[in-house]
Amino acid sequence: MRAWVVAEPGPIGPGANELGPLELVDKPTPDPGAGELLVQIRACGVCRTDLHVAEGDLPVHKDRVVPGHEGVGTVEALGPEATGFAVGERVGIAWLRHTDGTCAYCRRGDENLCPNSRYTGWDADGCYAEYAVVPADFAYRLDVAIEDVALAPLLCAGIIGYRALARASLPEGGRLGLYGFGGSAHLCAQVALAQGARVHVLTRGAQAQRLALDLGAASAAGAYDTPPEPLDSAVLFAPVGDLVPVAMRALDRGGVLSVAGIHLSDIPALTYETELFYEKEIRSVTANTRADGRQFLEVAERHGVRATTHVYPLSQADRALRDLKAGRFDGAAVLVNDLS
Ligand SMILES: [Zn+2]
Ligand SMILES: [Zn+2]
């Protein structure tokens, strides 16, 4: 099969002809092992984490890994002992692909904190490929009435946005600030709006601000601007630590900032009086549980949550990542398999 691999992690250049960290190669189609499904990939969303893996912001976990963890495809074959799915069924391959099920965190329902967790497109080959394997226990059944392209970004961007919103403890009808407005934030905004929140979007880029207003945000302004009213909750989606004190100042007393990214540049020193006192809280968000994923997919179907997508052929995954880095599109990029 043909697949993209991260040959040598490093910066993805702005020039269209520059040789980047990704390489399109021929490699053996994977064999589904015990409990695994072999999936023919139809579409795969492009997540900012793919950029972090390609550029080396995240340490290498697997040499020449195939990135991509928002895969939608069709079950092609089942490995020994794999159950719960049938050949031909549509399934989703997401970020979390293994937990031990036995540690204290797993036992108390926090499998996202499992120290033995493994991730698609980082620890194991992902979905920027014609085929991928996934443990059946971690595959998502996709019996929702959402087509492949609109569905793919829900599998990470959507689920993480959903968990980040939950971590932000937004009160009923509350005032929510979203810092950064890419793939994850524009899905999170739709869930919050469906729940009756008033949403203020703080992001650079006129295109993203326009999308925010189109989706129903009460206001859209620059990332460092002050929102028009104090916030009960905020979610930081931009991987920019400098925005933490900015968001903390925008919170009302007792407000909560939830930091959604897996990678964040350093947070500058906080001023206690204006940025933390009055029981403001900062919380991080670490991956998600499978229960988060299943709940979110239900919520997405119920409320018509849809990704605004920009389609690229899978053969141009490197261009999609460059465009993501440069902020050239709003919403989320989705790769559609043109290799098979
Ligand atoms: Zn565990
Ligand atoms: Zn992701």
Return the average pLDDT rounded to an integer: 95
Q: Round the Cα radius of gyration to an integer and report it.
A: 19 Å
* N/C terminus separation: 8 Å
Helical content stands at 25-40%
How many domains is the backbone divided into?
Answer: 2
Order of helices and strands: EEEHEEEHEEEHHEHEHEEHEHEHEHE
CATH H-level superfamily of the largest domain: Medium-chain alcohol dehydrogenases, catalytic domain
Portion in strands: 25-35%
Q: Can you tell me the residue ranges where pLDDT is under 50 for at least 5 consecutive residues?
A: none
**Structural class per helix/strand content?**
alpha/beta
CATH architecture of the largest domain: Alpha-Beta Complex
What small-molecule ligands were found?
Answer: zinc ion
Q: How many strands appear in the DSSP assignment?
A: 17
Which fold name is given in CATH as the topology of the largest domain?
A: Quinone Oxidoreductase, Chain A, domain 1
Give the overall form: globular
Report the total helices: 10
Largest sheet: 7 strands, mixed
Mind telling me the CATH class of the largest domain? Alpha Beta
